[in-house]
Design brief:
Mean pLDDT: 91
Strand content: 5-15%
Structural class: alpha+beta
Largest sheet: 8 strands, mixed
Number of strands: 8
Radius of gyration: 22 Å
Helix content: 40-55%
Low-confidence stretches: none
Distance between the termini: 65 Å
Order of helices and strands: HHHHHEHEHHEHHEEEEHEH
Oligomer: single chain
Number of helices: 12
């Protein structure tokens, strides 16, 4: 690839990444701290971009330099997002996720494809007791924040800010057309977490255990309603006022991983979840395109149970709800 072609490709790629209402010239000028006229000259190829400018643009828009220079290294550039106890809080994590979903929503053509082995993170945030339990478990057992070491779970453990951010995140997610690929194992991890805390004496009362299970049950009843209507909506919203934007697949063959693919216009972004909450993301075409095709193939091997296949939908959610009911009986 010639230097002119690489420069042309860079700005074309940036243009694809920008929401429709943002000007390429304004965006480039802002990142490079140059005038609009200078940005125009670089975009038209009249002024070559220097290496420092390429670096700034690639870092800001998360573009692989190898891809830009057509280097066949076999390597993929990922951005890592990891919560820690020092300088990246759970509140910041939620706020950044909200920005990611809001960014996807800013495009006219958009879609999120979610292959899950657990409950997708957005669906944990409809009801306060489940929001509280997931937060407490993540902080105590995954992040291992020191102030949670000797605490027992209580329903009032979350701040108003965390509750509002959690509900804002799922509310924004309901607006994005999405595909989710589930199997009946997806509920097992949260049940295991609740049972572990019950057996370890981490609940302050048995009533709280029942409340968390009831909240999980409400979540799956609400998911069933969304699948039936083929649209996403909050528990207090009327589904008849919503557009169809939800495809729910029941996969009985493959127990996959937590992979999220965001498609915005012509650009695909892959999010790979690891260590429960943390994730890596990339827009590298050599990675994203095969990943996208794998998801399409998995859909073909799965059963669509949103708005159709009522029998299969009842079987799927019946299995999920029976697992919760069984645990409630044993309290």
């Amino acid at each position: 690839m010639s230097s002119y072609q690489a420069q042309e490709f860079l700005f074309q790629r940036i243009k694809e990444l920008l929401p429709p209402h943002i000007s390429l010239v304004d965006a480039v000028a802002e990142v490079l701290h140059i005038s609009s006229d200078s940005a125009y000259r670089r975009i038209r190829g009249e002024t070559p971009v220097v290496l420092d400018e390429v670096k700034e643009l690639c870092l800001h828009y998360k573009i692989s330099l190898d891809q830009l220079l057509d280097v066949r290294s076999g390597s993929v550039l990922f951005q890592n997002v990891r919560i820690n106890v020092h300088n990246y809080s759970y509140e910041t994590y939620l706020a950044d996720l909200l920005k990611q979903v809001d960014y996807v929503n800013s495009f006219i053509q958009k879609e999120i494809i979610y292959r899950t082995k657990d409950i997708p993170i957005f669906h944990n945030f409809y009801f306060r007791p489940l929001i509280a339990f997931r937060y407490f478990f993540w902080m105590k057992s995954i992040i291992q924040k020191p102030e949670f070491a000797n605490r027992e779970f209580e329903l009032n453990c979350i701040s108003p800010e965390i509750e509002e951010l959690s509900k804002a995140l799922v509310r924004e997610y309901t607006k994005v057309p999405s595909v989710e690929i589930w199997n009946t194992e997806c509920i097992n991890s949260v049940i295991t977490q609740i049972e572990f805390y019950k057996d370890s004496g981490h609940f302050s009362s048995s009533a709280d255990i029942k409340t968390v299970y009831e909240s999980l049950e409400q979540t799956f009843l609400h998911l069933k309603n969304q699948a039936e209507y083929g649209c996403k909506f909050m528990p207090d919203e009327n589904p008849d006022t919503k557009k169809n934007n939800f495809k729910f697949f029941y996969n009985r063959v493959v127990l996959g991983d937590n992979t999220i693919m965001a498609v915005t216009g012509r650009v695909k972004t892959a999010f790979l979840n690891y260590d429960v909450l943390n994730y890596m993301m990339t827009r590298d075409e050599s990675f994203c395109e095969p990943c996208y095709q794998d998801l399409q193939n998995l859909m073909k091997k799965s059963t669509l149970i949103s708005q159709t296949s009522e029998k299969q939908r009842n079987i799927f959610f019946g299995i999920m709800l029976a697992k919760i009911e069984d645990r409630k009986r044993n309290l």
